Amino acid sequence: MFVTVGDTVDVWDYNRSAPLSSFEWGCERVITAKFNPAEPALIASTAVDRSIGLYDLRGNSAIRKVVLKMRSNGVCWNPMRPMNFTVANEDCSLYSFDMRKLTAATYRHWDHVMAVLDVNYSPTGQEFVSASYDNTVRIWNFDSQRSREVYHGKRMGRVLCCHFTQDSRFVLSGSEDTNIRVWKAKSDQKLGMQTPREKRSEAYRETLKTKFSKMPEISRIKRHRHVPKMVKTVSEKRRVIRESKGRKEENRRKHSKPGSFVHEPMKKRHILKEVE
């Protein structure tokens, strides 16, 4: 089976000329839809009305829908955690949800400085890749707020789509310059055959990194990545704005009557409502 989107979400069989199921839930146009690889009866979709919809083929019905403040451009299920999925949003962030509780995101991933256009999980379910309008491709751990790798090219332009290979070693990206690029999932990984001595040396280095990962200098070097000048400039501006908003919120809490000020976490701040 395969799924297509338009005015409705249609599920097709390769051998039939008419859709097996068709879902419509009060939106003008659906942008994208994905099958759950672990539970093939579940489908997640995003629409232009800023909603994320969930459908169940077993009951041939829509399950629930959550509306965010901005539109989601892509969605992908975690292949190892069947209840979890991640969406790529226009507000420069990615949101991971548990379909059993859509009132708050389980994780908010923020490092991009422009709209995120696509997201895809690795077959292991431990990490995912995102493509953005800011000319970068980023790789994230599924439970991390910040990306662990960032890739960019001088002639690449806007990155429109991305995908993990089935061995989880490489990432594919498609960009505005009509090229498909292949990136290593781990930038420091050596390609080709390794001698036993090289394997022991690599394992020793990884052990040292883990042992001293909490030291400030080691942590700083591990996190440092070169990014385009535009991305760095916008990141600095966003950091200043974020810190200013944090100070304003803290001052408002300090000078309000006890119990009158309710702090809303970022995981809930971008969610408007849930519809069942």
Automatic annotation (TrEMBL):
WD repeats lie at residues 109-150, 164-193. The keyword Ribonucleoprotein applies. GO terms for biological process: maturation of SSU-rRNA from tricistronic rRNA transcript (SSU-rRNA, 5.8S rRNA, LSU-rRNA). It comes from the Eukaryota. Residues 185-271 form the Sof1-like protein domain. Residues 236-276 are annotated as: Disordered. Keywords: Nucleus, Repeat, Ribonucleoprotein, WD repeat. PROSITE patterns: WD_REPEATS_2 (PS50082), WD_REPEATS_REGION (PS50294). Residues 266-276 have a biased composition (Basic residues). Residues 236-252 have a biased composition (Basic and acidic residues). Belongs to the WD repeat DCAF13/WDSOF1 family. This is Sof1-like protein domain-containing protein. The lineage of its organism: Eukaryota, Sar, Alveolata, Dinophyceae, Suessiales.
